[in-house]
Amino acid sequence: MHPESTQTQAIRYVRLQLDAATRWRRRESFACVSQLGQLALSDSELLVSSHHLPIAIDSGDDRLQVVAITSPQFQRTPLVDADGQWRRGYAPIALRCLPFRLGVEGGDTLEIATNLQGHATAEAPVLDDKGELAAEIKQAVALLRRLEAGKRRLQMAAEKLLIADVLAPFQVMRAPGGASVRSRILTVDRNKLAALSPRRISHIARDDFLPIDLVAACLFSQRLVPAPISVATEPGAAASEPDQPPRIQFNANTQLDDSELFSFDAFVRAGHRDD
Amino acid sequence: MTHTSPEPLTGLRASLYEAVRPFDPQDGSMRIFAPASYSLVRHAQLVPVVHIEAFSLAHWFPLCWLKRDGCTTLVALRTLRSDGSGQPAGSPDTAASLPLALRAYPFVVGAGGGDRHFLDAAIPDQPSDVGAPIMTQAGKAGPGAQLKMQALAAFDHALAVSQAMTDTLVESDLLEAWPLDFDVDGERVVVDDMFVLKASELTSVRMFQFIEKYGSAAAAFLGAHRISLFRAGSLVQAARRTAPAAIAAQ
Predict the structure, then answer these.
(1) Residue A266 lies in a domain
(2) Strand pairing partners for B111?
(3) What is the ipTM for the molecules in this complex?
């Protein structure tokens, strides 16, 4: 279930050797996104990404990481076309920088995926004539550094939401009427959020609005997830407390979705019947 | 400090509706039509919205505030063009793209109270079907009317809180002007009087007080507003597709 469950086996990264003999190839398609399963996000791309990809919080590996899910089972429509071309309006930094990434152990080590490089793309040297990083790689490194800083800020925002207990896992129903399997991928449970007191939510946003943006991005992008996947919500968590002022709820009767509110067929049928 | 109007939607209603009149029992035989049958539904540039529809509309349009005639109103900006052309692909034909105020049309949002309703005396210039009377012969609202009344009720129920939030944002100086002035293939396209959340105040004491007053749904609403602003690029692209030069080239 975990979108990244096969990532470490499927994609092999090695430290990039910075010498004149090392060469690399640009990736020729984005078909690898399904292998990746998820992409770490920077805070600067959180809101725009939520228009195109499900935003979630990976709770594995003893730390939280805000990600855009690229696993096919989490998509209503494919992310790439038959030629491997990206079909969304925004490509996250981590995707644009492939086959490069910064070392997972931190620091500034540049790694390259040995099996994500194209076969038909031109081979290029890692260093230029002056012995410096080639311009294209230099640009990728700058982006990856920005990504690392943004990842850390989002991690802190996610920690605030975890402490506030507004997160819940995605779950997948394997068969109609069957049991659901819970994921380690978390999103915002709107019932838990509604149950959070105004005082507590205001303190979450006191020094940093990013947790609020993360709440919105998670809720907003839930619409992108197909039906077999749902949020393991806690029913009844939004029950009102007598001493609290009436809260603004995501009222089930007024929450809109993508279904047709106005049925032309029903409308016409009713019109003929009542005439 | 800007003073807001005591009555919501004042700044927008006059430009949105043509001839508002009270709904009375004799109007029950009046035929109403699917939303897109009406010119206003297809062409309104600015439509009043309420916070409960922010997450569903953020996918389509920027949600921002219009300051006009001393009143500040939360609106969906559907196009940069005042004639209503140049909406994002799928709008207005996709029902999900329609704000509650347009789903309710020709019923007028934000005008009634209790059982009092108002109608805009508009003629459907592009009816997709024969329509249906508002009331059945049994004296009940027909299915089409019920759907419109649901949208109307949802809007009106949320309006007081939505407008209170808007007024607090204005009084707390948490909004800033959003200049929309584009050169679209040599043509200047401008939308005046639009406001968005002031980015520099997101962690201010006044923002803290706003969230403390209105709670988690209001906080999430502000996030949805910020997400929706990324739809501005789609509006520019749509405006480019409907530029005179682009149309002439087709």
Answers:
(1) no
(2) none
(3) 0.92
Query: DSSP characters for A186-246?
Result: EEE-HHHHHHS-HHHHHHHTSS-SHHHHHHHHHHHHGGGS-TTEEE---TTTTPPPTTSPP
pLDDT of A236 reads 59
Chosen from A201, A256, A263, A269 to mutate, greatest number of chain B CBs within 10 A = A256
pTM of the model: 0.87
Cβ-based neighbour number of residue A80 at 10 Å: 18
- Does residue A272 lie in a domain region? no
A178 touches chain B (CB under 8 A): no
Is residue A249 in some structural domain? no
Task: Please check whether residue A120 touches B, CB under 8 A.
Answer: no
Least confident of B8-12, B196-200, B203-207: B8-12
Residue-by-residue DSSP string for A91-145: --HHHHTTTEEE-TTSTT-EEEETTSS-SSSPEEESB-TTSSBPHHHHHHHHHHH
| pLDDT > 60? residue A272 | no
Asked if residue B82 lies in contact with residue B248, where contact means CB atoms within 8 angstroms, the answer is no
Q: How many domains does chain A have?
A: 1
Residues of B in contact with A199 (CB under 8 A): 212
Question: Torsions phi, psi of B209, nearest 5?
Answer: -65, -35
Sign of CA dihedral B95, B98, B104, B105: negative
